[in-house]
Design brief:
Oligomer: single chain
Radius of gyration: 36 Å
Number of strands: 70
Helix content: under 10%
Number of helices: 3
Distance between the termini: 124 Å
Strand content: 35-45%
Structural class: mainly beta
């Protein structure tokens, strides 16, 4: 006993304090809520300040931009980190993806601009131009910056907001020295919803530039960058598309009167490539996209009034409306009886044209006219070529009279449905994934099918050795797959891409929700992966034992058992997110009834007894600390034994509190039945399901850790099964015909109940379809009666079928598979059997 007291006095009180079960749990990946500057100046050292949570340890920038150097500046905190960044020599102006990486994972993606402009936080006044100022707008806020200008000075003011994935719809107003409005600008299609004004300043003096949201209702995220000065930009490239495998010269369309031509190499497998800058040191803004095409790409050629001959389909032509009211006519060589699709891209390219497409015959008579298609303001026509017709004339015009260098378009003519040679596209539902050694991470890949229904093989551009992959194929007919990634060792942070290959081609997967992905697909094709150190007390989630026997019942409900393991002290609720091998189908009112979907938001709730038991550890630690302090300060030898007993009792109480907390954690309810609504129609192929689980703090908001279940493949079951009995051959009566009874039974699977309606169709002409038959709840047998007229032609008929419909689970109408029935009708007077041949 005295030895304990001597140790306390010798080594200090802290050496003997027992810390109970205060576990250091592996933190969640970093979450960035704001970034002060979303631009990097080429050739300079830039400071980027990130604000958020879980920003430690070892924060660093992961980006598609080439970096020469990065380092932490000042003191790094979990909620605020500043990183100094320098771009590598030769870096080009443009837009780049970025993520923040720590030793605990990788954040979601953002976009940075790179150029030669000075990058600064927004300020009310600037002393020199050009400059790029970064800030935020809140609701109806109007922000203003002042600068000095000279009479006759040409000035450009531009906002990047939508292009930096902000929700601000920017408006600019430029006021002169006399507080007179010099120029204003609204959101522009060519800038993807951002805005730009260009003006020649009328006098010397101070100018004020105001920025606000179009409806004075800026929504989060509301960051923006406003650039002031003069620089080169390229909004468009002409031609807008080039044939893959060919190096082509394209014209960059920027400042009025400026013409720059550059050469584009199109050997990549991507959807598009960025056009290089002619003078990168003077340039700012996104690089103009050049689409890569697998069809013949022609240029408009004006040879008098005769239509330009484009030849056989598929073919594309890149044109420009140079003068008001100009019409461009093209002759297409087509095959009679085929269905052709002709479409014009103009608005989709950022062109100011309101394009109209007219289809004429070879004599000039109008066959069809279109101005808009259901997906947007560009025109599209589908036309079935009449017999003996081999030539059609496609005419492109602008109905608003726009003309000039920016009024570009691309006309594409194909056999219907053949413009996507791969027959599908791929979408990644997340752009970042964190891998903890030995634990699975599930990546969902969705497939939008456009004529191809077979399997799609998936492959990453590159992954480090040791990364294990499973599920890297979208099965035939499926609209998504769940790919599992895992690694036994810590994964270095990297950027990769995912490619899908089908029967007739391959495509790169694009991340869902990237605003610029349609126009600059290379920004949407990047996926960030990062590893963490293995946690000694890791949070985990898994399946209940009963999941192996589960089935997906059409029109019913699937109950999925999920369980988790929460370390004591990290005992908040667990939020579950359902992942399935089914692409989301959205309608205006919300989620379509064709989705597997959760019945309600599900939490594995916290256990109050376990929380109380863990809280008691703090009181026991405080009592132990107090006893040790008192013992260490005691100078009365007579009280030494008593003080030592109090220390020992306090330590025992602390040990007991720890043991009670551990026991309470083991007894806590850590499982839940997750209810999934099943649509009435699904491809009857096995469906994959998994869960993403987020361990929340007791505040029920902050994420402490993330884990995934393994992917479970569950068969789809149609709960209604029709089993007809094969009818015996029936001889027709020459006067009465025949009466044929079709009998059988129905099965109700997976707890299905209720009435079932059976319908028979597909009968040959001349045999009337019988009335529908209802099989009441609890019954199984059915009977159809067919009346066959005496004049009916004998033979075997395999077309008839029977199907069942009903509401087996009380809500959705479910239709069974078709059950085939073969009718054999014999002639009234069958010919006599031939006599056996006599032996020679």
């Amino acid at each position: 006993m005295r030895n304990v007291l001597r140790a306390l006095r010798r080594d200090g009180i802290g050496a003997a304090i027992f810390l109970g079960t205060a576990i250091c749990l592996s933190a969640a990946p970093p979450a960035v809520t704001s970034l002060d500057v979303r631009g990097l100046q080429i050739g300079k050292v830039n400071s980027l300040t990130f604000t958020g949570s879980n920003l430690l340890p070892n924060p660093r920038l992961l980006t598609t931009a080439r970096l020469a150097h990065q380092a932490i500046k000042g003191e790094a905190r979990p909620d605020r980190v500043t990183i100094e960044v320098e771009l590598a020599p030769g870096s080009q102006p443009g837009l780049e993806n970025w993520w923040l990486v720590t030793d605990q994972g990788v954040s979601t993606r953002g976009i940075l601009a790179t150029d030669s402009l000075e990058q600064k936080p927004f300020t009310g006044k600037v002393d020199s131009l050009p400059v790029a100022l970064h800030g935020t707008l809140a609701g109806s806020e109007v922000r203003e910056v002042a600068f000095q200008g000279k009479a006759g000075q040409e000035i450009t003011c531009e906002v990047e907001a939508q292009r930096l994935e902000s929700k601000v719809r920017p408006v600019l107003n430029l006021y002169g020295p006399e507080n007179v409005l010099v120029e204003f600008s609204l959101p522009m299609a060519v800038l993807r919803g951002d805005t730009r004004l260009e003006a020649k300043l009328p006098s010397d003096g101070e100018y004020r530039l105001q920025i606000h949201d179009l409806q004075y209702a800026a929504a989060a995220p509301s960051h923006f960058c406003v650039k002031i000065g003069h620089w080169s930009y390229a909004d468009l490239a002409f031609p807008s598309a080039v044939q893959r495998g060919v190096t082509t010269e394209v014209e960059l369309v920027g400042h009025a009167g400026e013409t720059h031509s550059v050469r584009v190499s199109s050997t990549a497998d991507d959807l598009a490539v960025p056009a290089p800058w002619s003078e990168p040191e003077r340039a700012s803004g996104p690089q103009a996209p050049v689409l890569l095409s697998d069809v013949r790409e022609l240029m408009e050629e004006r040879n008098g009034a005769a239509p330009q001959a484009l030849g056989a389909l598929p073919v594309a032509v890149n044109g420009r409306i140079a003068k008001p009211d100009e019409e461009d006519a093209y002759e297409l060589t087509v095959e009679p009886g085929t269905e052709v699709q002709i479409e014009v891209a103009a608005d989709a390219l950022g062109s100011p044209m309101d394009a109209q497409l007219e289809l004429r015959d070879s004599k000039g008579a109008r066959l069809a006219l279109n101005d808009d298609n259901p997906e947007g303001p560009d025109p599209r026509l589908t036309y079935t070529v009449p017999p003996k017709v081999t030539k059609l004339i496609a005419v492109v015009r602008d109905v608003t009279g726009n003309a000039g260098p920016r009024s570009i378009y691309r006309l594409l003519a194909t056999a219907k449905g053949k413009q996507n040679t791969a027959g599908f596209s791929l979408t990644l539902t997340e752009d970042n994934h964190t891998l903890e050694p030995g634990r699975p991470n599930v990546l969902k890949v969705e497939a939008v099918r456009n004529g191809y229904d077979g399997p799609i093989d998936l492959a990453f551009d590159h992954l480090p050795d040791g990364v294990k992959i499973s599920g890297q194929s979208v099965p035939a007919q499926a609209t998504a797959t769940l790919v599992t990634l895992s690694s036994d060792s810590a994964l270095p942070a990297l950027i990769t891409g995912l490619k899908g290959r089908g029967k007739d081609g391959e495509v790169m997967a694009c991340t869902e929700g990237v605003q610029l992905g349609r126009f600059q697909p290379w920004l949407a094709q990047s996926l960030a992966l990062a590893g963490t150190a293995k946690s000694e007390f890791a949070f985990s989630v898994g399946w209940g034992a009963a999941v192996a026997d589960k089935k997906v019942p059409l029109g019913g409900k699937l109950m999925l058992p999920v369980t988790c393991s929460r370390p004591p002290g990290h005992d908040g609720p667990v939020r579950l997110t359902l992942l399935t091998s089914q692409a989301k189908k959205l309608v205006k009112a919300g989620v379509d009834m064709l989705n597997l979907r959760e019945e309600k938001a599900v939490l594995i709730e916290e256990d109050k007894d376990a929380q109380t038991a863990f809280n008691n550890i703090a009181a026991a630690e405080a009592a132990s600390t107090a006893a040790q302090k008192a013992a260490a300060a005691n100078k009365d030898d007579n009280a030494t034994e008593e003080m030592a007993k109090k220390v020992e009792a306090a330590q025992t109480a602390l040990q007991n509190a720890k043991k009670t907390a551990d026991e309470a954690a083991l007894k806590a309810k850590n499982d839940v039945e997750f209810a999934v609504f099943v649509p009435a129609e699904l491809p009857e192929i096995p469906h994959q399901v998994a869960f993403k689980a987020e361990l929340l703090k007791r505040d029920r908001r902050t994420v402490e850790a993330v884990a995934y279940t393994s992917v479970q493949e569950i068969p789809v079951v149609n709960p209604l099964v029709v089993k007809p009995e094969a009818p015996a051959p029936l001889t027709l009566d020459p006067k009465a015909g025949a009466t044929l009874e079709i009998t059988g039974n129905v099965e109700r699977l997976e707890g299905a109940a209720g009435d079932i309606t059976l319908t028979m169709d597909g009968l040959p002409p001349g045999i009337a379809a019988p009335p529908a038959v209802t099989v009441k709840a609890g019954a199984t047998n059915f009977k159809f009666t067919l009346k066959v007229p005496p004049s009916f032609k004998p033979g075997e008929y395999s077309g008839p079928k029977i199907f069942a419909s009903g509401k087996p689970y009380g809500a959705l109408q479910v239709r069974s598979r078709d059950a085939a029935v073969t009718l054999t009708l014999l002639s009234p007077n069958p010919p006599p059997e031939a006599a056996p041949a006599a032996n020679p």
